[in-house]
Specification:
Layout (H helix, E strand, L loop, with lengths): L9 E5 L4 H12 L3 E5 L3 H15 L4 E3 L7 H15 L4 E4 L15 H29 L2 E6 L12 H21 L4 E8 L8 H4 L2 H8 L10 H12 L10 E4 L6
Parallel strand pairs: 1-2, 1-4, 2-3, 4-5, 5-6, 6-7
Helix pairs in contact: 1-8, 3-4, 4-5
Length: about 250
């Protein structure tokens, strides 16, 4: 067994029909994990699960659609995972939303609440659903995909940044609570990654060229470059790491 071997482990990845979640699900399966694909639309989840099963063998992945704003739907996601695979070893809270782009003064209450509910409360719900099993077993890894938006201010994605800062604190608090039982909780804070979620930030050639001049690596990140860190945090390689936020941003925050 290598430090990155996930054979026998079961991972739920939210928002895994595209972007960072999709890349993470593939990367986890490549290391031997069983993966549960979840996003809002069942057909999109089915397509990803089918692709993983073709690549890694039937029974490697299942698809369970769930809206992160629906607590009952998340409970069904967890129940169906246990019914199919018998356990949950890894939870990757990747799904998030940002329905508002602009100054904080202009955000509507409903938009602010949606950001906080989908980016913080839903993660809390999922942890509540999976943690008891992990704590009883004495092992498990929870990974929350945050953002460098949680590390600095922004004139246009302020509420999103607030939610992502809260995710980092959620991980720290849970790490303190769960540590004595051997369950680890960590965050990843990506910079700008080439995903559909961030399309508005990178599809304009002039805008992205200007943005890249502020990045030491002079380019945008790719989803697979975040997926590697997800595997690390899920695997024995990170067994002494908890409550931390790994920044993966091409150096922009330095």
């Amino acid at each position: 067994m290598t430090q990155f071997d996930l054979t026998g482990m079961v991972a739920i990845v939210t928002g895994s029909s595209r972007g960072i979640g999709l890349a993470s699900a593939h990367a986890l399966a490549e290391q031997g994990a069983k993966v549960v694909i979840s996003s809002r639309k069942q057909d999109a989840c089915d397509a990803v699960a089918a692709e993983i099963n073709v690549r890694h063998g039937d029974g490697t992945a299942i698809a369970v659609a769930a809206n992160i704003s629906d607590k009952a739907g998340l409970a069904r996601l967890v129940d169906e995972t246990r019914a199919a695979f018998g356990r949950i070893d890894v939870l990757v809270c990747n799904a998030a939303s940002n329905p508002y782009y602009g100054p904080q003064a202009g955000i509507e209450d409903a938009q602010f609440r949606k950001i906080l509910d989908n980016n913080i409360l839903s993660n809390h719900w999922l942890v509540q659903l999976v943690a008891p099993e992990m704590l009883a077993r004495g092992s498990g890894s929870i990974v929350i995909i945050s953002s460098i938006g949680g590390l600095r201010g922004s004139p246009v994605i302020g509420a999103y940044g607030i939610s992502k800062a809260a995710d980092m604190q959620l991980a720290r608090n849970l790490a303190v609570e769960f540590g004595p039982s051997g369950v680890r909780v960590n965050c990843i804070a990506p910079g700008l990654i080439r995903t559909e979620f961030a399309r508005a930030l990178w599809e304009d050639p002039e805008r992205i060229a200007a943005a890249n001049t502020r990045v030491p690596l002079r380019r945008i990140g790719e989803p697979h470059e975040i997926a590697g860190a997800v595997v690390f945090l899920a695997a024995p390689a990170s067994s002494f790491m908890t409550g931390q936020t790994i920044v993966i941003d091409g150096g922009v925050t330095i």
